[in-house]
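Q: For a teaching session next week I want to show students how multiple molecules come together into a single three-dimensional assembly. I've collected the sequence lines for a complex. Could you give me the predicted structure tokens for the whole thing so I can convert them for display?
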Amino acid sequence: MSVHLVNPSDNSFGTAVITPRWLFVLAAATPRNAGNPILVDESLEQVVPESIMPGDIVGISVHTGNALRGYEVGRLAHARGAWVIYGGIHATLYPDEAFELGNAHAVVTGDGDIAWGKVVADCLAGNPSRIYDGGRIEGGQFLAARWDLIPPDKYMWASVQTIRGCPKHCSFCSVWRTDGQKPRQRGYQSVIDEIVDLRRVGFRFIALADDNFYPVTLTDLRLAREQNNIAKVEELMAIRTERFQLMEELAKLPKDMVFFTQITMEAGEDGEYLDAMRKANIKGALVGVEAVTPEGLKTVFKDFNCSGDALAKRLQTFRQHGVHVLGSFIFGLPTDKPATFDATVEMALKAGVTFAQFVMMTPFPGTVDFTRWEKEQALSPTLVGNVPITRYWLIPTEVRPKMFTPHPSMSSDEIRERTQRVWDRFYNWSAIWQRSACTPTLRARIAFMFLSKLYRQMYAGTGISTDSARRKKSKSWARWTARQCRKLFQAKPMPELESPAWEPVLLRTAHQGETGPLVVIP
Ligand code: B12
Ligand code: SF4
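A: Of course. Below is the structure for the complete assembly, covering every listed component.
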């Protein structure tokens, strides 16, 4: 009997940018008596059906974008006589779908770190339950990933999570609803141990797979102080202090390490925090800019972001403190006009962001935008084939519309074409050459240029170049470039590297709750 963990994808490039962390975390959650799980990341290569045997256990993770392929994998695993289990954000939101379309035996909702062990044991006993509620476990219970199972030559970046949950409530984002608004922070010791494991085997680029690396802002602290809410101030300060401790420890790791994270632009007003990030070798961060106008920010419930000159200044502050920005912008908001596209790319150029992504408004399940849209659609449902558009992930990709929510003044094609032009303008050779001046050597400059083009190729998913000849050509270019780029990320292994000898840590266990006794983890 074998346990297989499959990360579904329609697109296999042979090389991938970032490790799907869940694979290595669930590997750690797999009981030792079930042996080492077989990890299949389909963004590298497709699953081989013949490798699945009757009685095997197949765990499949689905987010909305890969659900359709995930169900296909589940059906083929079921046909091979395996136990089929789903988990991940989409399965959490739509467990029934996994049974109806993916031949599931069971679905795990929420966090899998603890639930997966029980699922495997139940399958081995031939008696799995239908639903396992993994819930939201405490930060101290997050499992460290099993990096001993990572293939050494397939990924550019490994991913390590330091915190889960986000206190904000942006309308297009499901994180605060699924992962909660209470930040759940891992002990820094366990984070550092994982990173040491990765550096030992030659990974020096690490994506911190966090929802929001800056969970407590200076404004939060000021407000709590103004309200004289001592308990709140203490709680916020404890979170902030732990962040600084983590960064202090990251700073002690080998100097060639490079970290990248996701953060709100509020960190731009906190020079002390940005300096700590820089010292910790957190050299870049994805910042959700989303919109460059106050009206746009209001529609996405992101009024805490800046617009206009203040926005450019805020983003430049990151650079001044040595943190590069990957600016993330959304097109297709109801307030967008034709002029918004040029204004956005000009802002991205003016603000000096090192990379940028321009995504088209997509209503993801679990978000405020999705709920609103689903209600509107209930009045007069739109169908594609016989699938309601509010279940767009079930529409075969060849006929799936590229945008789902109608815009008040522009057609979907107009939005796509304008978005494509923005990508082209931001990533034209001359603009990239200018930005590449941030690198120290000519070699690094050339690498930067290739990476910029690769990024554009992999993520400009506007669906414009969808004729199959162009798609095939661009895919084989991306495959080749990804292979070359990966070598630039590889470092000489450091098998001699040791984790610091940590003092025993006091932690509360989640089952015991906030008021439960403390346990000593040696
Ligand atoms: C890091 C990250 C990225 C990174 C790295 C992705 C990667 N290769 O791993 C980058 C920046 C590249 C990225 C890109 C995108 N992302 Co992203 N990303 C995240 C983030 C912040 C963390 C994911 C992570 O690694 N978590 C750590 C692991 C351990 O947690 P986990 O995956 O949730 O798994 C746990 C449980 O879900 C469960 N579980 C998961 N799978 C399984 C399977 C089984 C069998 C079981 C039992 C349990 C189980 O157990 C795990 C351990 O507890 C999440 C937010 C979030 N909180 O999930 C968004 C998130 C997953 N991303 C999201 C989106 C929308 C995207 C993009 C489409 C954005 C865009 N517009 O381009 C792209 C899509 C890329 C792609 N093709 O997959 C959405 C997905 C929404 C949805 N309904 O599907 C999320 C939820 C954020 C959001 N804003 O709502 N992302
Ligand atoms: S978009 Fe970012 S800031 Fe907004 S809720 Fe999601 S994770 Fe938090």
